[in-house]
Amino acid sequence: MRPRPTGPPSMLHSHLTTLNAVSLILNVFQAQGCEASELLAGSGIGPADLGHADARITTQQELQVCANAVARREDIGLELGQRMRVSSYGMLGYALLSSATLGDALSLALEYPALLGTVFTLRLVDDGHSVWLSASDYRDSPALSAFNAEFCMVSLKVICDDLLGLDLPLLGARFEHLRPDYHACYRRMFQCPTTFASHDNAFAFERHWLDAPLPLADPITHKAMKERCRRLNLEFTGRQAWLGRVRQLLVNQLEAAPGLEGLARQMNCSSRTLRRHLQALGSSYQQLLDELKFERAKELLADGHMPIHRIAETLGYSETASFRHAFVRWSGVAPTRFRG
After folding, report:
1. Whether residues 103 and 181 fall in one domain
2. HTH araC/xylS-type domain: which residues (predicted)?
3. pLDDT class for 228, splitting at 50, 70, 90?
4. pLDDT tens across 63-87, in order?
5. Residue numbers of the domain that contains 322
6. How far is CA 251 from the centre of its chain?
7. In this predicted model, what pLDDT tens digit does every residue of 80-126 receive, in sequence order?
8. Are residues 97 and 140 in the same domain?
9. C-alpha distances in angstroms, 330 versus 9, 316, 335?
10. Could you tell me the CATH number of the domain that includes residue 304?
11. Do 39 and 59 fall within a single domain?
């Protein structure tokens, strides 16, 4: 079953990432006549955000755009992955290109998964003869697991090819999901035997490639780019910790939300500072509150025991009609239909 948009993106378990993948999706589909607004629907990303190269969005915002894309074309993950050149990763991409060897570059990439924007845990598994570059522990939308695996593994293969300046010969590839109808495309992408329903997503190559020197290696540039990656990673993780505290404060007060001013006092900052930080994350107080209420509403509706009027009260609505209108705005369907 293809994923469909399910309302505003949740920031409950989000991490920060860049607009690289979103911009890529827009470029692919706009070339086919699709409007940007259709692909951005429900993500909270606006046209103005696309003009800022250093803008930060959450992985949930990114995944909403991905869901919109997959609803239009099921195999789009393979093509998108092919278009993610190593230069698409900004400072990290240049740090990888200037590394001494392929092994050095891959080790650096795995050190900064936040800068890769991955929703997997990445590992290099070395058995002495071959090396498996593995992506496992998927931690996001189940409906997008195959898409994300395809996007991740193809883009990792492209990174290796770009770093080496040639196609890295693969010994095999495997995927966690079941074999899709378009499985013949995998053979063309990876040029090796491919299996499905595996314990992880991975591809293998001969171990000696780890020691292959990179044609654009430059120790001075590499040192500078690596330091910038370290600082950027601190920014990502620091903002994530801050966002986690904001979320937790709000989720504990859904029945009587504190308002922007009240939340700012609880965060020991001014309302202007709070607003600015949320804007930098592509969000706002009201959007974040709506996202948290939507997540809680879905949980309570799925449980099936609490009447809808009580759910409305739990989420701070004095009238059930107001909750119904809000839920339709978030999800596109009425609460009774969602539950049914």
Report:
1. yes
2. 244-340
3. very high
4. 889 999 999 999 999 999 999 999 9
5. 243-339
6. 22
7. 999 999 998 889 999 999 999 999 999 999 999 888 888 899 999 99
8. yes
9. 9, 16, 10
10. 1.10.10.60
11. yes
